[in-house]
Amino acid sequence: MKNNEQVEIVTYNPKYKKDFKDLNIEWISNYFVVEPNDVKALDHAEDYIINKGGEIFAAVLNEEVLGVCALIKSEGKDYDYELAKMAVNPKAQGKGVGLLLAESAIKWAKEKGASKIYLESNTKLKPAIKLYEKLGFKEVTGLSSAYDRVDIQMILMLNS
């Protein structure tokens, strides 16, 4: 990735469905175990995310997807969207792709009138936690998770 090359953040396009799944399976397998809920969300992204009012973002450079993330619309009252399934190609890590994806997702959520964005992570993922803190996410407790690997939950309050 050269400095003058522009990474473009795009919203969901079915042609990036395989990248969405592959990048996520790659990072999850690298650190954790792929769980049934991962497979459900990744294999049925349209049903699970898009059709329920969420969005999937892809960071694209020269037609190559360098990273992905999703905003899953919440059905509960605790938050409006969950920032989820963020994955960046190992060769693009540390180059600001995750930040671009997260900022685009946050902007999108604000435009939809969201006031709170939630996320789940693991403290083993230090660069990710630092990124979330930089974006203003604060640790919260008391919400249940569908994933075994989750040991930290965070919320970002948006000033609408």
Give the structural class: alpha+beta
Instruction: Please state the CA-atom Rg, rounded to the nearest Å.
Output: 15 Å
User: What is the H-and-E element order?
Assistant: EHHHEEEHEHEE
Number of structural domains: 1
Report the helical percentage.
25-40%
Shape: globular
Mean pLDDT: 94
Uncertain runs: none
Largest sheet, if any? 7 strands, mixed
Strand portion: 25-35%
Number of DSSP strand runs: 7
Q: Helical segment tally?
A: 5
The CATH homologous superfamily is named: Gcn5-related N-acetyltransferase (GNAT)
End-to-end separation: 34 Å
- Please give the CATH class: Alpha Beta
Compact summary:
This protein is α+β, with helices and mostly antiparallel strands.
How would you explain this protein's 3D organization?
The protein has about 160 residues and is α+β, with helices and mostly antiparallel strands. The chain has one domain (about 10-155): Gcn5-related N-acetyltransferase (GNAT) (Aminopeptidase). The protein has helices at about 15-30, 35-45, 45-50, 95-110, 125-135; strands at about 10, 55-60, 65-75, 80-90, 115-120, 140, 150-155. The chain has a 7-stranded mixed beta sheet with strand order 1-2-3-4-5-7-6. Strand 3 and strand 4 form a beta hairpin. Helix 1 packs antiparallel against helix 2 and helix 4 crosses helix 5 (about 125-135). It is globular, with a radius of gyration of 15 Å. About 30% of the residues are buried. The model has no long low-confidence stretch (mean pLDDT about 95). InterPro entries: Acyl_CoA_acyltransferase, GNAT_dom, NAT_camello-type. This is N-acetyltransferase domain-containing protein. It comes from Flavobacterium ginsengisoli. Pfam families: Acetyltransf_1. Keywords: Transferase.
